[in-house]
């Protein structure tokens, strides 16, 4: 009980301080990243620091991280689904097909190539690590595209592109992760058969169908209840949060991709729900999103595998630098002509750089350890996440102002 109270006091106190203090710091010219501060706080209070908190008190640290990361990503993708206009996906099918097709495949293979050159292990283990760090993190992406600074400097088309990509490709990374896992567990022919029948047909397609059905039904019922004045603003928020966790739990129990199903459910709900009630839910969702996302970075800071990082030596540095430079930027630059919002070189550079790696990679890395028994996916992915957290967190505000200056197009939502 004392450990629980210590955890509540420390983590809730951090959220309170950041909620009250970051606005003041930004107004005085300081530009801290809340996620960086939360991770550093986790290091400070964790086993490597003061030893006030430890994930081992809750069970296997990686299992705890996996489940907390899963819940955090679910909230983040729901927030994105509610923020985007209901018709956004139908009106931008070509752009999203390019981003989720050739761009995402390039991100996987490029990251895998860097992992294979930097780390020990088989090609398939490198492909697994590459898949783990492929998805654009919805939590860190939210931090980049939301807020007054982003609204004043980043055009709406780019904010929507980054948000939509981060929302979809967290669930879409699932088959990339499980292909190498199946190959490492089974004969090649059995692995491919299992991947097609189980992963693609059930865990991906099934998740889309289940999420769309549940989200559409909930949205339609909410619209009817709202028209009859049976639903209050607080009830709408409750509906959205309950739908998120219900879809995540039910679809995961059915053996399908819960994260993808949650996002699709949010999009379907957004299509069907009453627009005014959806807007109310979105505003409250942002508050809940902030409360729910900072703790995972505290947990991440507590669970950093310092000894395993040190054992990698310069190979670890090469892994981080290589992934951050070649995973994403070359693909967006080469395919910018096929991605409508990237109508100028500065836009391609901005979007190509800001594909942060974070909580989604933590989830897939811990899942990979559980499925394969190898600790290397966690060691490598956690190091890349820390590098991305620093690189993207520290560059977000200055590069946002830079883009606002060179673009000269200050749209607002």
TrEMBL record:
<feature type="transmembrane region" description="Helical">
    <location>
        <begin position="346"/>
        <end position="364"/>
    </location>
</feature>
<feature type="transmembrane region" description="Helical">
    <location>
        <begin position="6"/>
        <end position="25"/>
    </location>
</feature>
<keyword id="KW-1133">Transmembrane helix</keyword>
<keyword id="KW-0812">Transmembrane</keyword>
<dbReference type="GO" id="GO:0120029">
    <property type="term" value="P:proton export across plasma membrane"/>
</dbReference>
<feature type="transmembrane region" description="Helical">
    <location>
        <begin position="123"/>
        <end position="145"/>
    </location>
</feature>
<dbReference type="InterPro" id="IPR004712">
    <property type="entry name" value="Na+/H+_antiporter_fungi"/>
</dbReference>
<dbReference type="Pfam" id="PF00999">
    <property type="entry name" value="Na_H_Exchanger"/>
</dbReference>
<feature type="transmembrane region" description="Helical">
    <location>
        <begin position="67"/>
        <end position="84"/>
    </location>
</feature>
<dbReference type="GO" id="GO:0005886">
    <property type="term" value="C:plasma membrane"/>
</dbReference>
<feature type="transmembrane region" description="Helical">
    <location>
        <begin position="195"/>
        <end position="218"/>
    </location>
</feature>
<feature type="transmembrane region" description="Helical">
    <location>
        <begin position="239"/>
        <end position="272"/>
    </location>
</feature>
<dbReference type="GO" id="GO:0036376">
    <property type="term" value="P:sodium ion export across plasma membrane"/>
</dbReference>
<dbReference type="InterPro" id="IPR006153">
    <property type="entry name" value="Cation/H_exchanger_TM"/>
</dbReference>
<keyword id="KW-0472">Membrane</keyword>
<dbReference type="GO" id="GO:0042391">
    <property type="term" value="P:regulation of membrane potential"/>
</dbReference>
<feature type="transmembrane region" description="Helical">
    <location>
        <begin position="96"/>
        <end position="117"/>
    </location>
</feature>
<feature type="domain" description="Cation/H+ exchanger transmembrane">
    <location>
        <begin position="19"/>
        <end position="401"/>
    </location>
</feature>
<feature type="transmembrane region" description="Helical">
    <location>
        <begin position="292"/>
        <end position="325"/>
    </location>
</feature>
<protein>
    <submittedName>
        <fullName>Sodium/proton antiporter, CPA1 family</fullName>
    </submittedName>
</protein>
<feature type="transmembrane region" description="Helical">
    <location>
        <begin position="166"/>
        <end position="183"/>
    </location>
</feature>
<feature type="transmembrane region" description="Helical">
    <location>
        <begin position="37"/>
        <end position="55"/>
    </location>
</feature>
<dbReference type="GO" id="GO:0015385">
    <property type="term" value="F:sodium:proton antiporter activity"/>
</dbReference>
